[in-house]
Design brief:
Blueprint (H helix, E strand, L loop, with lengths): L14 E2 L2 E2 L1 H27 L3 H29 E2 L5 E2 L1 H6 L1 H15 L6 H24 L1 E2 L3 E4 L1 H24 L7 H26 E4 L7 H54 L3 E6 L4 E4 L1 H7 L3 H4 L12 H15 L8 E7 L5 E12 L5 E9 L1 H50 L5 H31 L8 E4 H18 L3 E5 L7 E4 L1 H17 L5 E9 L2 E8 L6 H6 L9 H7 L5 H11 L3 E6 L5 E7 L23 E5 L3 H12 L4 E5 L2 H10 L4 E5 L7 H14 L7 E5 L4 H10 L3 E4 L4 H11 L4 H13 L18 H8 L2 H18 L12 H17 L3 H15 L3 H6 L1 H28 L10 H13 L5 H13 L3 H12 L3 H15 L3
Parallel strand pairs: 14-16, 20-21, 20-22, 22-23, 23-24
Antiparallel strand pairs: 1-7, 2-3, 4-5, 6-7, 8-9, 8-12, 10-11, 11-12, 13-15, 16-17, 17-19, 18-19
Helix pairs in contact: 1-2, 1-7, 1-8, 2-4, 2-5, 2-7, 2-8, 4-5, 5-6, 5-7, 6-7, 12-13, 12-19, 13-18, 14-15, 15-18, 20-21, 26-27, 26-30, 27-28, 28-30, 31-32, 31-34, 32-33, 33-34
Length: 990
């Protein structure tokens, strides 16, 4: 059977050759290209339409167009081919050859109309198109009736099918496979139509190249040739007509689809406008309302029919009503917009005449021609403005309350500090007189309670300033290592009194110098280490430092009572402690950790705590302190000189304060002139000559600020040199400092009276006065800190008796401890001779460090400061400078020895008159029980207390004696009773 279809060797090579008419060949290519474009566009319409029926109609029309194009191309191409033999076509087979092209085209387009179009479907569609084109072609060839015999070359036959399938697949891929690329869509469409038409024509002419005509050639029928030309044109016209009908139908479908989408979009837009919460109003370029939404009806009270067609300024009160049209004209002329494209708050006018605040946003839409449409969206902001007004009122009330709180704290600070000035000052003066042991205990209690109250006031003020962001932090270079050892030295006695260890760990590899607020950092660490000591009964406290990634990490570890998770969460809240019994057991206000956290946060750091009940606590502090440098060291010549006798004018409206200031200043050899108000101070200043003025700020009638202004005015009028004026006030607020400075004051001293700080402030402000400057110059020339004029100036005491008596609970005991220390100092802290060139700098530094700490604990303030200065010289690599001042250090030690011996000698007769009665060891438990019974009733038996403390000391239990006295002095009778109960249990035999 294949022999009758394909060419064999038996057929020979004597073939009949035909010829083509070029015009008809071109027409045969043009027709399938045009119809392919039509078919592919129809497939695109089918792909984009939402209607299922429209999709099927479009696919059918596309199949008819593309199938008709394949059929028309074939027969136009056959009409263009002329054989030297008569040719006619079988009508039935000719019509039947239409079906393969239509079927293949419809199936391919149906596949292509899917939403998802993978490459496999493109390949299948291309193969179907190629097969349809080939089947149509060879079916049409079978319809030829001619005396010649047709055979096909197998290779060219296969190539014709391949050309049809390959080019069809390429055309479909260009049209549908490149939709997601950046290529021009129109170019892809035209290119795909051309390739599809070429695929059809290419398959036809490749198939014609594959056919071989066998037989005897004859004469061509010229009549048929003429008819063929007209037939080709007629066939092309018919095919194009069908294509135009298909295009028209597709256009109708597309128009119907667009209309449907427009109606749907219009419905959506209407739904948006009708359901929008904000009012929507549209108007034309003349301000005429075109649309008035239901929300606008509810907002303004008008129905849409009442507003549409009228000027929008009917919704505006004056002056907006009159200015609106002019604004539109200016906008059209200049393009300068005030509302359009932005938004603003305006006033709207309701139908009932009431006005309302609205938020207006206007957008512009350019329509065809020069028409414009403006869309306005309005929101009623009455509630928001009312809320904003209430918030402003609340904020103003809060600011007024904060200001009232600040004024209240300032006033209370002044009112509380003023009487405390007298309490603390006179208590310190009284402690320097001869007292009985009981009287000294009472004075210790007064002093401790007063300073506790003062610390509470300072804590509350610090917390208030931190909460309002008014705490100003300094930034200066300092030694963190020295600060750490200072904390250890200042708190060691408190730890030793409870038999606790206190240690500081500062790595050698960690930088020593940083930059920050030394005072506040000292406050943070002292608070936390002090708390750790207070809440630890056994074990110890450790202070660890580390430097991690540019951040200082400090850890305070203790072995104290610990905290539960709930207590940890509340530990940084103000006035909060572990539980209600903590305050009764350990005392305190609960502000220390609050202030520590606020200070840490103000420095840009963070603080955390880790703890468990009964397992102690660890506080972690991370501070981003920048690196610093070593502060400039003061040489011996730069040591501060003692104050020479000065003429001092003091002004205070409280007699007790005046008396205390007089006693304190006169004790140092100064000449004091008192004044009881600002007016009297001004009069006495004008009548006399003074080196310095101490002026209370808050006084009746003429206060300290007004008096200072009058003094400064007097000095200017008479061309006098300004006299230093130091402000005295119980207020610590920054505003008061600023007011004092503006009034002309040079210094600032805070009540209650702190004599060392007051004298330091006087020394600072009097540096420029003639008397002080001369004294300082003479002191520097002498190379000593002793007064220049010992006949008139009060000598600087070697022992701070007031501080030492508080620490050691008695003048005689303090003197004994000082003598014991001085007797052992030469062996324990050896010092080289000033001119010894072979002195060991390390040993010198060690001895000076030990002397500094021990002297400070024994209230040898001058000796401790001198040793500290020398230690800094040794630490900075200047041991020769330290050695040069060793005679001064030894002189201070001799002065302390003389004062201590004198104190013991003055106490000896009193001791002989009333020798202490030792407590028999067997009677101590009975006395302890009796004292405990008295304490349970919240009463106190001083004799029993002294007997118990003496008995404990006689047994060598000095720590217990100290702890009992501390509890009694702080009026914590419950704690004292608990201590006695525990000790009695130990005394009771099992």
């Amino acid at each position: 059977m294949m022999d009758s279809f394909f060419l064999t060797a038996a057929d020979g090579t004597n073939f009949v050759q035909g010829s083509y008419q070029p015009g008809l060949v071109f027409l045969s290519i043009l027709v399938p290209v045009c119809l392919s474009l039509m078919a592919l566009h129809t497939a695109h319409i089918a792909l984009s339409t939402q209607s299922r029926s429209y999709r099927h109609v479009a696919i059918g029309m596309g199949g008819i167009a593309l199938g008709g194009g394949i059929w028309a191309m074939h027969f136009i191409g056959m009409l263009a081919f002329t054989l030297p033999a008569p040719v006619i076509y079988d009508k039935a087979l000719t019509l039947l050859s239409l079906l393969p092209g239509w079927a293949a085209s419809w199936l391919a387009l149906y596949i292509l109309s899917r939403r998802a179009l993978p490459r496999s479907l493109l390949a299948v569609s291309g193969l179907l198109m190629g097969a349809g084109i080939g089947l149509m072609h060879y079916t049409g060839m079978m319809a030829m009736i001619t005396p010649l015999t047709m055979r096909y070359d197998p290779a060219l036959f296969a190539l014709s099918i391949g050309v049809a399938a390959g080019l069809a697949t390429l055309a479909l891929w260009i049209r549908f496979g490149l939709q997601q690329t950046r290529l021009n869509k129109r170019l892809c469409f035209v290119l795909s139509g051309i390739i599809m038409g070429v695929a059809i024509a290419g398959m036809h002419y490749t198939g014609m190249a594959a056919v071989r005509f066998l037989g005897e050639s004859g004469l061509a029928d010229h009549t048929i040739r003429v008819d063929a030309a007209y037939g080709a044109l007629a066939l092309s016209s018919l095919t194009i007509t069908v294509g135009v009908l298909v295009a028209a139908l597709n256009g109708l479908i597309h128009t119907r689809e667009l209309y449907r989408e427009m109606e749907l979009s219009k419905s959506r837009l209407r739904a948006i406008v009708d359901t929008a919460v904000d009012a929507i109003i549209t108007m034309d370029g003349h301000g005429t309302v075109q649309e008035f939404s239901p929300s606008a009806e509810r907002l303004f009270g008008y129905a849409a029919a009442e507003v549409v067609g009228r000027n929008v300024n009917m919704l505006m009160p004056e002056p907006y009503h009159s200015e609106h049209d002019g604004y539109l004209r200016r906008y059209h002329a200049t393009g300068e917009a005030h509302i359009i494209g932005t938004g603003r708050e305006v006033i709207g006018l309701r139908k009932d005449g009431t006005q309302m605040p609205v938020r207006l946003a206007v957008g512009r839409v350019d329509l065809s021609g020069n028409d414009r449409l403006y869309v306005g969206m309005l929101t009623d902001i009455s509630d928001r403005q009312a809320l904003e007004a209430s918030l402003r009122d609340a904020a103003q009330r809060a600011e007024l309350a904060a200001a009232a709180k600040t004024r209240f704290l300032a006033n209370m600070s002044h009112e509380i500090r003023t009487p405390m000035n007298s309490i603390i000052g006179f208590a310190e003066l009284l402690q320097q007189t001869d007292l009985t042991k009981t009287q000294r205990n009472y004075l210790n209690t007064i002093g401790q309670s007063s300073r506790t109250l003062l610390r509470l006031i300072n804590d509350i003020l610090d917390t208030t300033k931190l909460e309002h962001g008014r705490m100003e932090l300094e930034s200066r270079d300092f030694s963190l290592k020295a600060l750490a050892h200072q904390i250890e030295s200042s708190l060691r006695l408190g730890a030793q009194s409870k038999a606790l260890s206190l240690s500081t760990h500062y790595p050698d590899t960690m930088p020593e110098y940083f930059r920050g607020d030394t005072l506040r950092l000292l406050q943070i660490l002292t608070n936390l280490v002090g708390n750790a000591i207070k809440f630890t009964e056994t074990g110890g406290v450790e202070l660890h430092f580390a430097y991690e990634h540019g951040t200082v990490h400090a850890q305070i570890r203790d072995t104290g009572i610990g905290m539960s998770p709930d207590q940890i969460r509340a530990i940084f809240d103000p006035f909060t402690q572990a539980d209600a019994s903590i305050s009764r057991r350990f005392g305190g206000t609960g502000l220390g950790t609050t202030i520590a956290r606020q200070l840490v946060q103000s420095m840009g750091g963070r603080i955390e705590v880790q703890s468990a009940p009964g397992q102690g606590s660890t506080f972690h502090i991370w501070l981003p302190l920048p690196p610093g440098k070593a502060p400039a060291q003061e040489s011996a010549a730069e040591a501060p000189a003692a104050l020479p006798p000065l003429r001092v004018l003091i002004a205070d409206d409280i007699d007790l304060n005046l008396e205390l200031l007089q006693l304190t200043l006169q004790a140092q050899g100064h000449q004091v002139t008192p004044a009881r108000d600002g007016r009297e101070a001004v009069e006495k200043f004008m009548a006399g000559a003074f080196d310095v003025v101490l002026m209370d700020v808050h006084m009746p009638d003429t206060d300290g600020l007004q008096a200072t202004r009058l003094i400064r005015q007097h000095e200017r009028q008479h061309d006098l040199r300004p006299t230093p004026i130091v402000a005295l006030t119980a207020s610590v607020m920054a505003h008061d400092r600023e007011q004092a400075s503006l009034a002309g004051m040079n210094g600032f001293a805070v009540k209650p009276l702190d004599a060392p700080r007051l004298f330091a402030e006087i020394a600072r402000v009097t540096t420029g006065s003639p008397t002080a400057a001369a004294a300082a110059a003479e002191t520097v020339a002498a190379g000593t800190t002793a007064p220049v004029r010992p006949d008139t100036a009060a000598p600087v005491p070697a022992i701070d008796w007031a501080r030492g008596i508080k620490l050691w609970d008695g003048r005689e005991r303090l003197a004994e401890r000082i003598l014991g220390f001085l007797d052992q100092a030469a062996a324990q802290y050896p010092l080289p001779s000033p001119d010894d060139p072979a002195a060991d700098p390390g040993a010198l530094h060690f001895s000076l460090h030990g002397l500094r700490g021990a002297a400070g604990n024994l209230a040898l303030s001058a000796l401790s400061r001198c040793a500290g200065d020398l230690e800094e010289h040794a630490r900075a690599g200047r041991p020769q400078a330290a050695q040069a001042r060793i005679p001064q250090l030894l002189a201070l030690m001799d002065a302390a020895r003389r004062e201590a011996r004198a104190a013991i000698a003055s106490a000896a007769p009193q001791a002989d008159a009333s020798p202490p009665q030792a407590v028999p060891p067997g009677n101590l438990p009975d006395i302890m029980a009796a004292l405990r019974a008295v304490l349970v009733r919240h009463e106190l038996d001083d004799a029993a207390l002294d007997a118990v403390c003496d008995g404990l000391s006689a047994r060598g239990r000095h720590a217990r004696s100290q702890a009992l006295r501390e509890a009694i002095d702080s009026f914590d009778f419950d704690r004292a009773g608990a201590l006695l109960g525990a000790w009695l249990d130990e005394e009771t035999p099992a």
